[in-house]
Every structure is written in structure tokens, then in C-alpha cells.
Amino acid sequence: MTTKILALTDALGNLVRFRLMPGNRYDSIGVPPLIDGIAFDGLIADKAFDSNALVAELNERGAMIVISQHPGRSQKLKIDAELYKWRHLIENFFCKLKEFKRIAMRACKTDKSFEALIYLAAAVINSR
């Protein structure tokens, strides 16, 4: 069994919130609880998060949508290519997170202990 970490970072690449999900679930399923109650002006994400429901919610919020789209999408969205380049911040966060061997290897037996380890690692990353 595998575990996915869905993370939301701020404009500096610092962890704001995350969710653990089973590895066999679609990424877009975990986004609504992840962004619930958080105000933001835009969302930058990869094509795993390209869903009509998420796009509709972001439009309702008035947030800028910068999500790479699946090639089969019928209605293409216009995205800012220069702004999309900032997606590397979340990728960098995951690279820093995987420097912690217990996270990279998913050594914790329970989800609660794994979440605690992620919070601890994020605190260490932010203190650097």
C-alpha cells in the first residue's frame, strides 16, 4: 500500500496544509478539503489537478487558475506560462521533504505518526 501527500504551499514554498491519501486515489479528490477555508489569489498545479469541479470552484472564488491541462480536455483554459514556472516551489518542497529518510521510505506504521513526522520535517525545513 502506498500513501500520497497532497501539499499546499505559500508563494515562498512553505507548507501551509497537507493531506494524506491512499496511493490509488486521484489527486483532484483531495483538493477541496485542502483549500477549504483558505483565501488565495491563484492556484498553480500540474495536470493531475485538472478537473472541471476544481476549475469551477476556483472561478467562483475569483482565483487565477494556472493548471497544466490534460491533452484530452475539450475546452482549453488559458494559463500564464511565466507564472506556471513558479510551480517549482512545490517540487522543491517535496525534494526537501524527501531528504528525511523516514518520510521518503514511509517508515511510520500509522498515518498519525507519519503526519507528525511531516509537520516536524516542515518545521525543520522552514527553520533553515
UniProtKB/TrEMBL annotation:
GO terms for biological process: DNA transposition. Transmembrane segments: none annotated. It holds the Pfam family DDE_Tnp_1. It comes from the Bacteria. Residues 2-124 form the Transposase IS4-like domain. GO terms for molecular function: DNA binding; transposase activity. Coiled coil: none annotated. This is Mobile element protein.
